[in-house]
Amino acid sequence: MSILNEISSWLQQGRAPKVKACVQQALDEGIPASEILEQGLLDGMGIIGQKFKNNEVFVPEVLIAARAMSKGVEVLRPHLVEDGVEEKGTVVLGTVKGDLHDIGKNLVRMMMEGKGLKVIDLGVDVPVEKFLDAARENDARIICCSALLTTTMGEMRSVVEAVEASELKGKVSIMIGGAPVTQTFCEQIGASRYTADAATAAEVALELCTA
Ligand code: B1M
User: Fold this and answer.
1) Ligand 1 in contact with 193 (CB < 6 A)?
2) Residue with CA nearest ligand 1 atom 81
């Protein structure tokens, strides 16, 4: 098995120390960082993302794989900057104000990072203005809001209204998701896109960033 296949395979198994060691070995062998990212780490995360979408693996496996991916990226990051790998776009992500649920949001982040997007993760309990400020500061293409409570999903409407009333109108898309959120709600509040799961959110975000 090639070292890149090994990285992908260890990542799918969530074996962070093995992923780190193999990424270092691949660098030592002179493989470009971009190739290690694309054909090793992103390949593995892509397979996990697809399996998650098809209910073949579940949240714990995804979280463990994602942690292994983060460890691999840590080793790679300085080399990626050196190699001048272009990020595919910047996304601001957070759980809306009043809401502390972050497991789904973290999955969305990991899937998006797995697609080569730069994610500015604002964490949980994020007020409307913080989403907008972060989008301005980072020249983001998308604001992504997660909400798990029926009592907090209304915050998404406030984000849409604030963007519409600002200079970001027409420049920034707004993606929404979380267990109580629906396509109907998305249409009601005028958000750009609703996606039901993290893997689809990452696919749509990449589509919007590269359109
Ligand atoms: Co909370 N909680 N919780 N909770 N909690 C729910 C959401 C609830 C449905 C449980 C229930 O009553 N059956 C209920 C909400 C009811 C409602 O509003 N209709 C509830 C409640 C009431 C509460 C509290 C109010 C309880 C209390 O204190 N009385 C409180 C609120 C705190 C607050 O936020 N202010 C509370 C607290 C907590 C914990 C802290 C204990 C913990 C959160 C820990 C954490 O996140 N670090 C917790 C948990 C774990 C849950 C349940 C059990 C699991 C949520 C979860 O992580 N699911 C949940 C019950 C349930 O959902 N079955 C529940 C796994 C996760 C992977 O799924 O987040 O849906 P999810 O993400 C999915 C998709 O939704 C999507 O991608 C993910 C998968 O691919 N997705 C997006 C998510 N964000 C997206 C964004 C996108 C696109 C897709 O684009 C931007």
Assistant:
1) no
2) 178
Six-digit token pair at 99? 């809401």
C-beta atoms surrounding 82 within 10 Å: 10
pTM metric for this prediction: 0.84
Whether the pLDDT of residue 203 is over 70: the answer is yes
* Residue (of 125, 131, 128, 65) closest to 101 by Cα position: 125
CA distances from 168 to 46, 77, 173, 193 (A): 31, 30, 9, 17
Helix, strand or coil, per DSSP, at residue 144: strand
Helices (H), 91-182: 103-114, 128-138, 154-164
- Is 148 touching ligand 1 by the criterion CB < 6 Å? yes
As a whole number of angstroms, the distance between CA 106 and CA 119 comes to 11
- Cβ neighbors of 190 (< 8 A, separation 6 or more) are 160, 164
* Neighbour count for residue 102 (Cβ, 10 Å): 18
* Closest Cα to atom 66 of ligand 1: 104
The amino acid sitting at 87 is E
| pLDDT of amino acid 85 | 61
Q: Is the CB of 145 under 6 A from ligand 1?
A: yes
| pLDDT for residue 31 is more than 90 | yes
123 pocket-lining for ligand 1 (C-beta < 6 Å):
no
